[in-house]
Amino acid sequence: MSKRDYYEVLGVAKTATDGELKSAYRKQAMKFHPDRNPGDKAAEDSFKEAAEAYAVLADAQKRGLYDRFGHQGVNQSAGAGAGFDPSVFNDFGDFADILGGMFGFGDTLGGQRRRGGPQRGADLRYDLEIAFEEAAKGTETSILIPRQENCDTCSGSGAAPGTQPTTCTMCKGQGQVRRQQGFFTMATTCPTCRGAGRTVSKPCPTCHGAGRTAHERKITVKIPAGIATGQQLRLQNEGEAGMGGGPAGHLYVVVHVQEHGFFKRDGVNLFCEIPVNFTTLTLGGEITVPTLDGDETVKVPEGTQTGTTMRLRGKGMPDVNGRGKGDLFATVQVQTPKKLSKEQRHLIEQLAKALPKEKFEPRPHSEAQDERNLFDRVKDMFN
């Protein structure tokens, strides 16, 4: 089968600059790399084809021969599997790290990336449920975290006291070994040291060479006032211990705030409903509104309609970043008595006779209005 044009393989024009060639190859390598397409022979062939095309076009002399004579002009020095030099990829810089992080073959591109050496410990997550009042006031609590910590006997080295780990003789401390696959050099985890780059001839009797042991550690967590469900706290270096002297990971505490039986929360604002007697709404008076700081007395103007919302500024939830407090929106709802004495019934009947007969104009019914709850309507009213 005849070879495809190298420019066509990389998807660039014949006038492509070095930067455009490099960018095009990166896309092809990321797309067709065997680690991303395990068992896909077509993807592997495309990966090799792109590498071969770039090996030729990235070299000014070879590119000149290819532009003049095509594949025949370079088949002596850049044919499939003949004379291909992986060093053409050494100038990829950060790209080598990107591919190494994604596919685990950092040594392939230029041999600059090491598997061995210190490794950062894993991050941990803990889900913490707190009461609504604790979220409003802030609190401090202790949690038990199971985690891997450095072995006290060997201080994390994995070697028995009096001994030290030695550099792996197979990978020379790199943590990877290379193997030739056609015209491309692949790197795999060293089977002797399993990527550590070091070997332990006499393992620590406590951790059996792992360098870490399991512990359950009590950690104090400070919860700031105003925290909401889903927000997380990062406790630096409280995750699992690193390997080979690497730094510890972090602990992320994800907070879940319990619902309140009376208040509804929206950000830093609170909403509630207050039952009020018909006479108070009609004649005016005072009502008691519960807040996070205790009861507040609020004046109700004469003739207040049921559903009216009053705003208590600064009586909502505190801002978790310390920027003041939200507001409390209290909506009054008329409270209809379920039982009346004879005297009460007589008085209400007399009132009903004295009040003028009201006429109500029919209005079209809107299902959309029914679907919007009280708190949505209140927010619209004050925004």
- When the domains are counted, the total is 3
Q: In the CATH hierarchy, what is the architecture of the largest domain at level 2?
A: Sandwich
What portion of residues belong to β-strands? 25-35%
CATH topology heading of the largest domain: HSP40/DNAj peptide-binding domain
Question: What is the tally of helical segments?
Answer: 11
CATH level 1 class label of the largest domain: Mainly Beta
**Helix and strand composition category:** alpha+beta
SSE ordering: HHHHHHEHEEEEEEEEEEHEEEEHHH
Helix content: 25-40%
Strands side by side in the biggest sheet: 10-11-15-14
Termini separation: 70 Å
Shape: elongated
* CATH homologous superfamily designation of the largest domain: Urease metallochaperone UreE, N-terminal domain
What's the average pLDDT? 81
Radius of gyration: 36 Å
